[in-house]
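Sharing a chain and its predicted structure for anyone who wants a worked example. Both blocks are below, sequence first, tokens second.
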Amino acid sequence: MKEGIMPSHPRRTVSSIFGIGLVSGTLFWAGHSLTLSDASTAPSQSTAAGSSASPAPGFADVAKRVTPAVVNITTVMTEHVADGSPVPDEFREGLEEFFGKPFGPRGRRPGDPFDHRAPRRGQGSGVIISPDGYIVTNNHVIAQAREVSVTLPDKREFRGKIIGVDPKSDLAVIKINAGHLPTVAWGDASSLQVGEYVLAVGNPFGLNSTVTLGIVSAVGRGQMGITQYEDFIQTDAAINPGNSGGALVNTKGELVGINTAIFSQTGGYQGVGFAVSTTMAKPIYESLIRSGNVVRGYLGIGLQGLNQDLATAFGLKDVKGALISDVKAGSPAEQAGLKQGDVIVSYQGTSVEDGVALQRLVTRTTVGARVTLTVTRDGHEREVTVRVGEQPDDPKVAKVQYGDVGDALSGLVVEELDQDRARQLGFQGTQGVVVTRVDPDSGAERAGLSSGDVIQEMNRRPIKSIKDFKMASADFKKGASVLILINRRGNSLFVSVKV
């Protein structure tokens, strides 16, 4: 039997997402029905006996306060399955003569198959944070969704709008148009003690407002390989498919985590669940509402784990610190004089246990702030001051979500046109962005855009990069017409789209 960490939202269960194994188990998301999650190597020892949240024999009052604010999220996605062309061979020659080659699977362009598009449904949970309808959930609950529906415990249903997503932490924010909603208050996850009671609230297997009880098994789990940035609370409160995006609360009814994943040998609950700590989730939620994205601090270094042999070789007193294995050219770290082989043992006066701890400290630091590092180099400690930079974007990909620019370009995914892609599509230049997917029944599809189109101008403004595309899109005004110049199979076409 394959073991694993799974997402906890029910769609079709896929064991060992990302091929991550742990011991002989697998991580799975806890709330959609794909599977994924996190369990890492943070200390599981209890730190102190005096917890701020005293265990109580009953939790009915907590459940009554929290369950009205935990919602059910259902999504509709489109599964693209490349198969045979719907065009009969006897008509193909005439179509190719008119539209140009290639036409259909026999001469299919890279990234532009004839698809069989089947709707696929997913289900998970979310937590209402503000009375006007802002909801935090997992990114994997709503990823690739073209429709998001939110059902409240009182059975009212709303269409959800995606405000922002952060795949690096598997968090997302959606909004519904409603007011005077029940909410869950943010709690202080940093004060959690191992052994404290916590409650998991969500919709496992579509069973609304399910409450389970457990304890905090460990805090600060990381290095699981599921998300890029990890700060997980481990709990034995039952978390199952459908729980992803739901609430983990303390005995005061305060939100301390977002249920995300389970470690399982069977795909179901086995006493090891994981929730994104609100220490990480709260600032990400606030950033997504404020700007639609997340800005993180950045030093520009590669880090490597320490063991006893390396610690001895680098002249360390114990196996603590973050070993720099690489310094990126032109980065804040290089400008400050940090070198390969330096071991960072302190960050702004806070002891650095390992690379994960340093990563959390850096990413939560305000961009532009000057910080002091204590570094061990050649067996001697020294202080280095660094001005924290902004973490660069990931591969240059953008998705226009529903509502971003009215409905006109919703459901459109574009990538920056690099030399390889330009060569595949038969273009000489590399300026523009290429459409890599258009969701069916979306505004972009109705506008006539299709996979493989290269967007070169928007309202006569040259589009040479993803940055240009985003800036031009931001200027769209609802009700106005947008003139888009595209290149389709070597032919230039203008498309007028009403936003």
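Comments welcome. The chain is about 15% helix and 35% strand.
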